[in-house]
Design a protein that fits this description.
two-stranded antiparallel sheet; 3-stranded antiparallel β-sheet; alpha+beta; elongated; 233 residues
Length: 233
């Protein structure tokens, strides 16, 4: 089922305009709603390109700047689309649940308590798919692997072989950066047992506050007028 962020345009049209819209054939209503929905989606993509939220403010900066200079939410921009249009509503969102969940976190913000114990137990393959926590995705660095393998003589459990010391290469391929950091802190007797990760809201999809809402309402009114005129209403 497509993952969507709900945006409503209720109460923006006068009663007469709503009645005229409802009087149109379903195919024409779908066409009108589809065009307005595409405009909402297009403006959302423009906000991502400009890195500004619904209020026009700049997005909060990343905790750590990316070396490649990629913009925030860039991965969502290409996936955002009109996913459904009927005679009474249009839905804008994402075709897969994972992307929709990420978009919802970015739109509304999110917070999570992470424990060192949970990171040790976590499956890094799930982390790489973005399903475990807000900071997952990077594997252990060569430096972390060297500390674990050479300095701390850390042992790792592999299926069917119990706890054994592993090579630095194995660590960088199977242990996440967060897991490695938690294990190092634990074995050295330092570091927090748990901490909070916070993702600030970076809204991109929705309708801006008045008076910027006017273009959307005018677009809807214009389409209704054109359709009704063609039908002689």
């Amino acid at each position: 089922m497509p993952a969507t962020i709900r945006v409503e345009v209720k109460g923006k049209l006068a009663a007469r305009e709503q009645l005229r819209l409802l009087a149109l054939p379903e195919a024409k209503r779908r066409r009108i709603l589809g065009r307005v929905a595409r405009k909402v989606a297009m403006d959302a993509k423009k906000r991502i390109s400009r890195q500004t939220d619904l209020g026009g403010a700049k997005y909060p900066k990343r905790h750590k700047r990316r070396k490649d200079g990629r913009k925030m939410l860039a991965g969502l921009r290409g996936r955002l689309a009109v996913v459904a249009v009927s005679g009474v509503e249009a839905k804008i969102g994402f075709k897969d649940g994972r992307t929709g969940a990420i978009a919802s976190q970015q739109q509304n913000g999110a917070s999570q308590t992470v424990t060192a114990a949970s990171l040790k137990r976590a499956d890094p393959r799930r982390q790489r798919n973005g399903r475990h926590d807000l900071q997952a995705g990077l594997m252990a660095t060569p430096r972390q692997a060297k500390v674990l393998a050479d300095e701390l003589n850390a042992k790792f459990r592999r299926k069917g072989s119990g706890w054994k010391k592993q090579s630095k290469r194995w660590i960088t391929q199977n242990i996440s950066m967060l897991q490695a950091g938690a294990i190092i802190r634990s074995m050295r007797g330092g570091g927090k047992a748990s901490w909070n990760t916070t993702l600030p809201p970076r809204s991109f999809l929705g309708l801006p506050e008045e008076p910027e809402l006017d273009p959307y309402v005018q677009e809807l009114r214009q389409r209704i007028f054109e359709m009704c005129k063609a039908k002689g209403m």
